[in-house]
Amino acid sequence: MEFEVITIGGSYFLDDVFNFAAVFTNAAAFKNFLGIALAGSVIYFSFQILIYGKPDGILKYLVLLVLINGLVFGPKARVVLTDPAQPISFHVRMIDNVPFFLAWIASVTTLTSYSLTARMEDLLSGPDDLAYEKAGDISFGATLLAKSTRYSAVTGTVSENLTNFFESCMITGNNLGYFETDALTRTGNMTGFIDANVPNSLAYFDVETRTLKACKTGWPELKTKLGADIATAIAKRVKFNEPVTANLGAAITDMMNRDKAAIEAFQRQIHMAGTSATAHIQQAMLINALDTSIQHMLAKSGNSAAMSSYQAARAEAQTSASYSAVGAGALSWVPIFKIVFECLYYALFPIAIFMMMTPLAWTIVKGYLSGFIWLASWGPITAVLNAVVLKRAYGLYQEKMGSFTDPGTSEYILTFANHLGVRSVEGDVATLAGYLMMSVPFLSTVIMFGAARMAGLATSTLAVSQGAAMETGREAATGAIGLGTTSMNTLQANKLNSAWLNDHTRSMDILPNGAFQNTNADGSVTFDRGSAVSNASITPQITQSMMQSSQQNVENALAHERSEASNFTSAVSNAGSYYQDFGSQVADSTSAQKGQSTDTSFRSQQEISESWSNVQDWAEKHNVS
Fold this sequence. Notes:
With 625 residues, the protein is of the alpha+beta class. It is 66% helix and 7% strand.
C-alpha cells in the first residue's frame, strides 16, 4: 500500500525519520521491546483480579491491543514524501516498509491539512506564487521584493565600472545641466533614461582595460555585462534546506524561477510598473550603483555638510529598517519548530506503540492522535496569517513608493528617490510576520483545547511588549533615562581629552608640565601637582610607635654627642694645664741648674721649650685657654 505524506520544507529530515521507523519496527528487538509492555500489563491485570476480583477495563484494552498489533505488524506501506517547498528534483522521496498505522495517520493528517490550506489560500485571493505551501514562509514575496532592492553587480570590475560611470557621466552630466536632477532620481526605468541621456562628451575610467572610455560607447558594454550579472545575483541568494550534491544546476534554476515568479506576482498585486523580475533587479542594481557613486563623490569633494546630511538620511532609513529581534527571530524559528515537532511525532512512534501495550493504551492513543491533529492545524492558520501579512505589505509598499509613472495609470515604481523607503518595508513586514508566526502554536492549541488555554499563552507572548511599556513608564516617572548603553569587547585606544574645566566660579588649566592651575572667583591662583611629580611605586607608612621610638633615639644621640664634646673639652683643658705646670717647673729647674749643667741640659731644655710652644699653638688654634 502507498500513502502520500506532505511536509513544507522538512523532507530532508523526515526521510531519515521514516527510514528509522521502518527499520526499527521490523527488527526482532522491537518485538522483544513490546513483550516487556505486554508482560507488565498481564501483571497489572492479575493484581486487579486478586485484589478487586475483576479486571477494570481489560475488555477495552484487549480490543485495542488486537487493533494495534494488526496495524503495526500487519501489512507494510510505502510512504511517498512530498515537499512543495523544495526544488522539483527533491519534491518526492519514497520510503518502504513503514508500519501501516504510522503511514496512514501521517498521510491522513498532512493531506487534509495541505488540501484545506491550499483551498483557503485560493479563496483568500492570494496569488499561487505567494502561497505559504509554495515557500514555507509567510510574507515570502513581500520580503523578497525588499531584499531584491539591495542587489548589486556581482562581478567586481562591473561594479567598479558602474560606480565610475555614474560618477563621471551621469552625476557630472547632471551638474553640467545635460538633464534635470529629478529626471535622474525619479525615473522608474533607469536603463531607458541612460540610453536617452548619456553624455557624448564625457568619459569614465574603465578599471578592466585601465583606459578612459567615452560614456556613449562604454554604456552598451556595461549594460550587457550587467544583464549577465543579474542571473548570478539571483543564484547567489538561492537557499536550500539540505545539501545538494546531484543536479545542482537544475535545482538552482528551479529555485531561481520560483523567486522570480514570486517577485513578479507581488509586483502585480501592488500595481507596480514593469512586472519583469529581471527588469526590477536591473533597476535596483543601477540605483545602488548611483547611490555608491554619490557617496564616493561626496567623500572625495570634502563637502562635509552634504556628506553629513546624506548620511543622516541613510541612517534614518536604515534605522527604520532594523528588524525587531523577537519578530524576525520568530519568522525564522517557527517553521523549523513545526518540522522538529513532525520529526518527534514520527520518530517516537515505537515509544508510543510500547505505551499502547500498557493499561494506559486509550490515553496514549488519544494523546498521540491529537498531536497529529494539532500539527495539521498549523497549515490553515498560517494561510490566514499569510493573507493578512501580504495585504498589509501591499499598503506599506505603496506608501513608501509614493510616486507614479503616470497619474492616470497609478502604477508604482522603484526609483532612487524612494529606494531606501522600500528597503525599510522589509523590517516592518518581517516584524509583523514574525509576531503572527509566533502565534501559530498557541492558536492551534486553542483549537484543540479551547479558549481557556489562550490566556496563559497570550500572556507569555505579550510579555515582551508589556515589559517594555513598564520599563519606559518607570523611566518617565523617575527621570532615570538611559539610552544607547552597549558594552561588549570594550577596547579604548588613542584617547584625546581636549576639554578644560570651567565651573561657575572657577576654572582649571593643565600646564605644560602636567600640573593644574586653579583660578578662583576672587582671582587667586593655586597649583596642584597633577602629573608633574612622579609617584614612587612603594608608599611607606610610619606608625605612631615607630615615630616616638625614632624621636627618642634622636634625643639620646644628641645628649650623647653633647656629653662626649664636654668630655673632650675637659680632657683638652686638663692636658693644657698639665703641660703649663710642667713647663713652669722645667723653667724653674733650668734657672736653678744653670751654673752647674749648662752643657748637659741645654738640649733637653730646648726640646721642652719647643713642646710647650706647640701646645700653645694648638690651644690658640682650637680656642682652648
